[in-house]
Write a structure and sequence with these properties.
The structure is a homodimer of 297-residue chains.
Chain A (H helix, E strand, L loop, with lengths): L1 E6 L3 E9 L2 E8 L3 H16 L5 E6 L28 H9 L3 E5 H12 L8 E6 L3 E7 L2 E2 L33 H5 L1 H8 L11 H21 L4 E4 L7 H14 L6 H4 L2 H4 E2 L7 H19 L1
Parallel strand pairs in A: 1-4, 4-5, 6-9, 9-10
Antiparallel strand pairs in A: 1-2, 2-3, 6-7, 7-8
Helix pairs in contact in A: 1-2, 3-10, 6-7
Chain lengths: 297, 297
């Protein structure tokens, strides 16, 4: 039995189990670290009856993923009050005395979708979430891409359509980067209406598809994924999928010569299959990885 | 002893040897496939005295890298006359009867730099070439990123600075994608002067650094490389490095929290160390990979 924590900036989701058919979860708001992490630890202890083999954590960031680093397992320079330099993985490991796997929230969700969802049997794919922020996790040759730190894909620059869109963008670091133009808060800020309340025929959705397609095109050309999973609150407007695929096809313009991209775009850009449970299920996969690594050492 | 072929759209470079200190090369113009490939094969045969263990090919593309595909080892949909559906790897394998490794020209160069050049001991880095086209090869977790086809990074969209630059871009597929705005032919077409003849204080270099920095920022945020190697004909204008680093720092604006990117940008964006020999030396690495794989089977 494994434990999982999806540590989000707004809420924590914790789970105990072995997979989608055997998963007991709880969720609660993210307050200050001690209380929030304490609550997660208590749930994992009580729900497992002390039988956990390992715990996996998918966390909001930025986080330190370098196992050789003195701050490995920390949330580092987040703007979220109280959470800077928070030793999240260490607190869980110390309390539960089991191996702890640690990765970004989007990497965890990608691993969950790879095991049980829309990315099964793929060696190379991209998991994206479009909501409060825009984040991406990439699996390359069957392994999570971390690199120097971890990707921050939402902050790429794409052409800003100044003819139709005078909005300056809301990213405090970059103004009109993709997240600054196309995250949920950007839509709210630009139109004065929350994304979920914008009518389906509003110009906002046309622009949203336009910008997201630019992001997808850039990532498709850079990462050459076998599939792109596109989730998050903004995508609850499911009409967006058709528009994004249409704009993406126009942007690529036949250049990527693969039937998956030329002909079968509706199988190439897809929603995740695990919905809101992708992150916590991915936590189980991270727990298993941590357990197996220990086993090998 | 291994053989290597760097198959470019303009010229072929062939080599025989074991590394930078032991490499005999020849180069000749790319004409039609039969004559060009035949010449490469003859060189490899004669120069090795029939003692080759394997050959590695880094090729212009697009190419088919899927070992299970019926057209594995082919150059596929290139616009270059005569080279469509050309079985490059097969022709070499049939003539020389040794294992043949096959990858893109930029992936080969990346592998060469990883073994002997500016990317030694890195698990995650990006090799870029800015010349007739813009191409990138990525090493992720120590392995080449191929994915669905292979990356075509040069064709990402970045913001087009229409205030300073009315040029429409020269990419036949995408107009003002990065390659359409910042390749060597784009500079020639925009200013009516070849890139190497533009004065160092020309606006063209300011724009060139601006666009390339946008590409580098997007790739840094997407791939999280430990280093970016930046080569190709356009970068012979070495003043570009300082300008690109300056613009890149402005674009990232402190968001990627790593000393490598915040403080040590002159060690983060660097020229390749193997110069014009990166591709052919990478061919030796591909040959070794092909030989070792055979050994294991």
């Amino acid at each position: 039995m494994f434990g999982a924590i999806e540590a989000g900036g707004t809420k924590f989701v914790c789970g105990v189990g072995t997979g989608p058919a055997d998963l007991r979860t709880i969720q609660f708001p993210t307050t200050l670290p001690e209380a929030t992490i304490g609550r997660a630890i208590r749930f994992l202890q009580e729900e497992s009856g002390g039988e956990l083999k390992a715990v996996g954590i998918g966390s909001f960031g930025p986080i330190d993923l370098h196992s050789a680093s003195a701050t490995f397992g920390y949330i580092t320079s987040t703007p979220k009050a109280g959470w800077q330099n928070c030793n999240l993985a260490g607190a869980v490991r110390d309390a539960l005395a089991v191996p702890v796997g640690f990765d970004t929230d989007v990497d965890a969700a990608a691993l969950g979708e790879a095991r049980w969802g829309a990315a099964q049997n793929l060696s190379d794919f991209l998991y994206l979430t479009i909501g409060t922020g825009i984040g991406g996790g990439a699996i390359i040759n069957g392994r999570v891409l971390h690199g120097l730190v971890h990707p921050e894909m939402g902050h790429i620059r794409v052409p800003h359509d100044l003819v139709r869109d005078a909005y300056r963008g809301c990213c405090p670091f970059h103004g009109d980067c993709l997240e600054g133009l196309a995250s949920g808060p950007a839509m709210q800020d630009r139109w004065g209406i929350a994304a979920q309340d914008l009518p389906a025929d509003h110009l906002g959705w046309t622009l949203e598809a336009h910008y997201l397609a630019h992001g997808l095109a850039n990532w498709a050309l850079t990462l050459s994924p076998q599939r792109i999973l596109l989730g998050g609150g903004v995508l609850r407007q499911s009409q967006l999928f058709g528009r994004i695929r249409h704009d993406l096809a126009g942007l690529l313009n036949g250049y990527v010569r693969a039937t998956e991209v030329i002909r079968d775009l509706d199988q190439y850009v897809v929603p995740p299959q695990l919905g809101d449970r992708a992150g916590v299920l991915g936590g189980l996969v991270l727990a298993e990885h941590a357990y197996t690594r220990l086993d090998r050492e």
